[in-house]
Structure formats: structure tokens, C-alpha cells
Amino acid sequence: MKETLSMKNKIALLICFFCFFSEREIQAELPQKTTDLLIVGGTESGWAAAIQAARLGVKSVTLVLDGTWLGGQYTEQALACVDENKGPGKVGWGVDWHPMKRSFHRSGLFKELMDRIEAFNTEKYGSPMPGRPFHGPSTFRPAEAEAIFREMLQPYIESGQVRLITGHYPVKADLKQNESRQQLTGLWFAPVGSETPDLHITARLTIDASDWGDVIQVSGADFEVGADPRSRYNEPSAPVNTDDYPANEMNPITWAMIVEEADKDTPIPKPERYDDRNFVRTSKLSLAEMKHLKWDRPARLGSILHWPDAGKASPRQLSIFTVRRIVDGYTSQDHKTSILLNYMLGQDYPLERLPKHVVDALEATEPGASTKNIVRMNRRQRQIIFDDAKRHSLCLFYHLQNFVHEHAPDKTNSFRHFQLSKEFGTADQLPPKPYIRESLRLKAMYMMREQDGRNMDGPTKKFARERFARVMYPDGLFAWQFHYDFHRTGRAYLKSEGNSGPWIDFEKPGRNTKLVSDRSVFPLRSLVPVDMDGLLGAQKNVGYSSIVSAAIRLHDQCVTLGQAAGATAAVSLQQNIAPRDIPYNRERLEQVRHALCGAADEGVAVLIWPYRDLAPSHPAFVAINRLAARGIIPMDIRKIDFQPDAPATTEWRHKTRQLAYQTVQVANLPIFPEEGLSRGEYCQRLWDSLKALPIRPYSRVNREDADGDGIPDIDDPSLFTPGEPIQWKKKIASKDQDGLLDKATSKKARRINFAGKKTAPLTDFEADHGHVYDAKRGYGWRRDLSQNHRQRNKVPETYRDTFVFTRDHDTWECEVPNGTWLVTVCVGDSGHEQIGQWVTVEGKQIVKDAATIDGFFLEQSANVTVTDQRLTIEIGKPDSGTNTCLNWVTFEPAPQKK
């Protein structure tokens, strides 16, 4: 027995000896490169990180990508309509009326990029947005955008500061053990299509901006995939039980297609396994036949875009022609229209419960491969999924060219006259990669949670809240806001055929809540691995929960994520400080912020604090952002407009100066003339006076719990704020916000309480139950609102606890003598936040787009003249999409002027 063991040991030693020297030999033969900063991934994040680091003076930056295109979802993923911010009142997803508003002004590298894209579009197409798409985002051809990405990076390549390596991916990592954790020191790369490395790069710091977190995976850094159970991060929208959320369930991929108008009908061949029942939302099947199909999951079809046998197609049915049109035939030089087909009509490809032919192909590579999350698959296994996602998209295009064409009343709006764009240079004329909504989630120093970005005192609803987030992270680097947007992650099959038959996608419970974050910032800690040095995350490989990942994945966000990672890397390298130490080092944190917003040598400054009305062109943009991020500007949860050109009041200046003293180590701030300054001008003067002063360092109680509040730093969003991480004080209602009847109200005034029939009558009020105007009663509505009453039982006074509401526009009238009347109205909701409330009295608008939080109201008075013997009050506005809640009204003859 001893001899046998001895022989095994000898064999094992020989194998180790052989492997050691073979590896040394291979490593010696590989091309060796050394760089300060290594960036993996040619995504928009990787591109932005390279430019930012180069601008900040990092001498050697190496960017390695597994394809040949720069730009990620803009270009090789073909998402050629930009989800972004354009500022208040602008077209695009930032438009004011949209429930998912993100009304920030463009800033940073994203603005520079979009300015160039739109300048190119204007020169070539005569318009910055040549597609005129339905929702109004900027559009472009992916190949033309890629040329702009390359053009912006090219000066740094030509100078030798940035080295670009294409067609490679990491297969192995070099690690060394530090005192408490490992450090990534280099990567081995193989050419795409091979698993054998032919390139070795050592680096002081590496950024993972790849599609699937390649560096994080080969380095062994900790990460998460799939749905988070509620027990992990205590998120209110997370599933309590994840049994129905398998490991491979996540935001779906989509193989986008760019199709362009042709000179004649150009039908594509029928794809393999085509089944019209995959596209029941636009199927030739009758409604009765669609309802007859029995799916094995609760798959609601939603809006069925079925063309009727007769009549005209509705705008919604034809919206696929307009919602993602990237070049309009009216503006293009050749008068040809190009359209992005991205997700509509069932084009998304869920990653759970894969079809049988895909399962069989994956299982042939490795037992259990079909149940793995796509992140954990190897490149060969992912390609099996990619090939089927491509096939599925081509099936949709075939469906549009045939069945939809056949049943469309208007044949001029037909995809039979469209062909796949040749701009990608691929054999199948499809983009090189799918659109990737979700990657792995780096286990970072802090994992962003849903409850951080939402003030949880309001109702569960989908409208954007015009207020700052519950937690404004102390290490915030840039502003963001969006809804937690999961596309349909579930896949349902016909009960009769199982996974060998057709399928449709469907929304799983809790995976598309349509909830919107409040106006938030992104923390530096979420770029830094919790357990590894020498590495930063970027693109979609950063520290957030699955729910938050669904809200931080858009064009502008990914560019700015890369820019933030590049700035963090530059400060880390130049100051010889580990990125994980920067959030605790106030001086170094300010250097990162300076790199993003303040280093004016090159580029546009980044919006750090999520003010709505600040554009980078404003002279005080940098000063306001830097002061706000330091906590020097007095904050109110709802004051999302800074109003830089408004007067700087004495009280506001005093509060600002007091806050400034808390951040610097001086006895007295420099004095400057303050009278007559605007708020923006005052911030400029204040920032100029203190930015060079020594900053007060953070006081760290202990290494694992910086503020000593018993919450470990890894779970503490506010590192230096002891206790609950809520930074907003409970507001005290002023006299015109308490909803209470003024004691000085004349006893002669008529008082109307708007309440339901079941509400007990009040001695001092007449009750309006929402009925249509009745001459005998003498007041009422132009239409029946008797079902539009609520009582919250939140406050003791019934007259302010009840209200009538409208989401449209409604009119109330009361018979009164002609003359001048003093009218007071009260709007609000004792239980819920309400936004966008409108009231006019006799044509005079006294409440305009008003927001009230739960338990707060707005009381407004006005003198109005009645000439038709009816006092007329209008509430709400058509198609506003928000509630106007009218609690009570008082009116009496206006006092005569003496």
C-alpha cells in the first residue's frame, strides 16, 4: 500500500513539475506586454474608461476587446435608438410628460459623443434625429456611430498612450496574495475561436468592461447572477421565494436587426423551426383561436396587435414602423427608411426554460449546461443560445414579411419591402452580438439596493418621483434615474406540446414592477470588488442587486459608468492608493470628482448631483455639483431644481456657509461680497474660496464599521451617518400645507367637502359626492365622479382625509350670484404622494403641476369674478397620467377694497 501511494505521489509530483515548467515555457514564449491600466471590453464603458484615463494622464492604457467594433450596445449590439436624458421638456425618454422621466441634461463623455453623432446626422441627413421615431430618442446607423467612437479614441492611440488589441478574450489570471485578499496583476488572452493564450499582459490595475464579466470570472472575484431572494438585500420588490426563478432566469437578450427599405420586395427564406404561433401578438390567428391556445404558464398576451379582417390598421398596430425608426425616408439622401427591430412583438429571448433543441445541444457539451446561467457558460455554450436567438429574430422578420403583410389592410406599410442591413459585414447580415441587458453582478464593497433609490413612504406606482433618493451615497460619482425595467423574463410553452413546440415570453411576478427610482447617485464603492485588489467593474459588471441592475443599463449610464471607473483608476494609479481606500479618504474622493467634474482641460463635466435644471454650459455647473456632492448646499428632498439664476437670499447664504465650515479645516472662510449675487454666482465664489483649502478628513471609528453604528460597511449605504441611512428630515407642514381650515375663515363662507356617500356628514361643510350638476342642489360635476372618492383614515379631520380625484380633466360648478369671490381650494392626499396636480378657478390657474407628499396638502386662494351665475372650478388636465385630488373648497364674496 505504501508503495502504491508513493508511486501516486511521484506521478503527481511529475505532473506538477511538468505543468509548472510547461506554463513557464508557454509564458516565456507569449508576447509580453506591461501596462498601467488594462481595460477589457470594447463596450461603451470600456471606451469611455480608456478616454477618461488617458485624459487624466495615465501613461499606458491597453484596451482589449473580443470583437472589432467599439461602442457596445450602440454599435455591435445595434441598439441604435438611445435611451437617455435630454433635459427638462426635451424630446426623448427625458420628456416631462413621460412616466419614466429622467430629466437630466446631457453631460460628460456621453454629451460629447451624442453631440458628434448628431452633428454627423445633421450633415448627412439634414437632422440630428433622422429617424423621427415615436418616442423621440436620438438615432443613428450603428456603423456610422462606431466610426465616431473610433474617431474620438484615435488621438490617444496615435500618441501611443492607448494601445488597442482586438479579437482577444481573457482565459487566465495572474494573482498574488496580499495581507488579507488577492490582487489581480495580469491576464492571459486567447484569440477568439481558440482557448490557447497567445498574449500575456501585466497591469497595475484592470477594469472589466466586458459583456459577461470575463475578467471577474477568470480572476475568481466573487459575483452574483439570477434573481435575488428578498432575504439577501431586504428589497421590497424581491421575491420571497425564488423557487420559480431558476438560476438561468434574468433579463432577456435580444438579437436586434437593422432593416432598410429596398427597391423591391425582398423576402427572406423561411427560417428553421418557424412557427407562426410564436408571434400570437401579431398572428393571422383569430382572437378566438388565440384564446384557445393553452400555455403552461400564466402568460397574459397583453396588447394583441391582431389585424382585423376589415377596417384600417390602428396606429398601435403600425407602431413597429415608427417606434424604432433610425433613418426616415423623407430625410435620407436615398429616400430609404431604416428601422431597428429590437424587442417588440415577442422578439426578446428569455434565458430560462430553453427550447428542447437548445437544451439537447447544450447538454451534449456538458451535463447540466442547459440549467446554467448564461454568464457561467463558456463561449461555445453561449454560442448555442446566440444561434437560437438569431433564428428567433429572423423568424419574427419572416413573420412580419409574410403573415403580417398578408393581413395588413395597407400594403404600403409592409416589411416585405425591407431587407437586412449590410453595414455589419457579417455573413448573416445581423449585428455581431445580441443586446445584453444583464450580466453578472460584481460582489462589491457596497451592493446598491432598491430601497436606497426609493423613498418608501409613497404608494407602489410607476410614475417618476420628482425628489431625491432615500440615500444619496456619500461617495456618489454621477447622477442616474430610471425604472426597474425587466423585460419578460419567463417563457411559456403550449401545454399540449411542451418545450418542443412554440413559446411566448411573459412577465414573471415581481420582475417588472414598473417602479421608478428617485433621483439618485452612483457610489464609487459599487465599482470595487469586496474581495480582490487590482480590479474595478464597469459596464454591467458592477455592485448592485438584480432589481437595480434593471435600472442602470442604458446608453448614457454605461458611458458614465466607464468614465467613473476610468477616473477612479487614474487617481488610484497616480496617488498610489487602492481604489477601496478612496471612499474613506475624502481628499482622494474629491480628486475623483474633480476628474469627472472640474478638470476643464478636456471634455464636458459630468453631472454628479441629480439636479434637473443644471446644464454643463452654465458657468456655475462645476461649483454647484461639487458643493452639493460635499454636502455644502442646503437640501430639500423635493427641490430638484437648483435655480442657479435666482437671487441668493441671506438665509440661504448663511446655511450654505455654515455647511461649508463642516468640510474644511480652517477657522474662517475667505470673505467675498455677497449682496446682489444669484445662487449660481454665490456658489462660484464660495467654491473658488474653499476648493484649495485643506479638507476635513472622515473620522473612521473602526475598519469594518466606519461610523460605529453597528451596521457593517458592506451593508451601510451611508458610511459616515450613524443609524438609519435616511438623510431627509421629516418636513413640518406650513400653514398652507397642513390642509386645515384657517380659523380666520369667515362663518359666512360656503364650505364644500368632497367625499364619498359613506362618509359621515360634517356640521360645517356641505358634502359633494361627485354627482352630476343638479339645479335643485345648486352644484355638481359635468360628468359623474361618484366613484372617484377616497378616504385614507390617516388624519383625524375628515374634510382633509377625503377627496375626489381625476386623472383627466373635470369641471365642478356651483350656482352663485355674479360678482367677485374669494375662493380657497385644497388639494393633496393624506396617505399617498401625488404629482402633477392642476386647478383653475374661473379660468385663473391657481394650482399648476403641483406635487404633494403623503399627509401634506396645498391650499391656494384667489379672487375671481363670476359673470354667468356659476362658480366654475376645473381640476386636472387631459391625458396628464397623474391624479389631481381635491379635498375641499371654500368661497365667499370678496372683501370690498377701501
Polypeptide structure, described:
It is a single chain. The protein is α+β, with helices and mostly antiparallel strands. Among the domains are: 32-76 and 139-243 and 445-470 and 517-596, 3-Layer(bba) Sandwich (FAD/NAD(P)-binding domain), CATH 3.50.50; 257-420, no CATH class; 735-893, Galactose-binding lectin (Jelly Rolls), CATH 2.60.120.430. Helices cover 23% and strands 19% of the residues. The strands form seven sheets. Strands 1, 2, 3, 4, 5, 6, 17 and 18 form an eight-stranded mixed sheet that branches. The radius of gyration is 31 Å and the shape is globular. The N and C termini lie far apart (118 Å). Residues 1-5, 10-26, 91-100, 302-317 and 458-464 have low confidence and may be disordered. Keywords: 4Fe-4S, Iron, Iron-sulfur, Metal-binding, Oxidoreductase. GO terms for molecular function: 4 iron, 4 sulfur cluster binding; metal ion binding; oxidoreductase activity. Residues 227-246 are annotated as: Disordered.
Mean pLDDT: 87
Q: Gap between N and C termini, in Å?
A: 118 Å
Instruction: Count all strands and give the number.
Output: 30
Q: From the alpha-carbon coordinates, what is the Rg to the nearest angstrom?
A: 31 Å
Helix proportion: 10-25%
Q: Examine the secondary-structure arrangement and name the CATH architecture of the domain at 32-76 and 139-243 and 445-470 and 517-596.
A: 3-Layer(bba) Sandwich
- CATH homologous superfamily (4th level) name of the domain at 32-76 and 139-243 and 445-470 and 517-596: FAD/NAD(P)-binding domain
CATH class of the domain at 32-76 and 139-243 and 445-470 and 517-596: Alpha Beta
Biggest sheet descriptor: 8 strands, mixed
Ranges where pLDDT stays below 50 over 5 or more residues in a row are 1-5, 10-26, 91-100, 302-317, 458-464
Percent of residues in beta strands:
15-25%
Classification by helices and strands = alpha+beta
**What best-fitting shape do the alpha-carbon axes yield?**
globular
Count of runs of 4 or more consecutive helical residues: 17
CATH topology of the domain at 32-76 and 139-243 and 445-470 and 517-596: FAD/NAD(P)-binding domain
Pfam family, one: FAD_oxidored
Protein name: FAD dependent oxidoreductase
Organism: Gimesia alba
GO molecular function: 4 iron, 4 sulfur cluster binding; metal ion binding; oxidoreductase activity
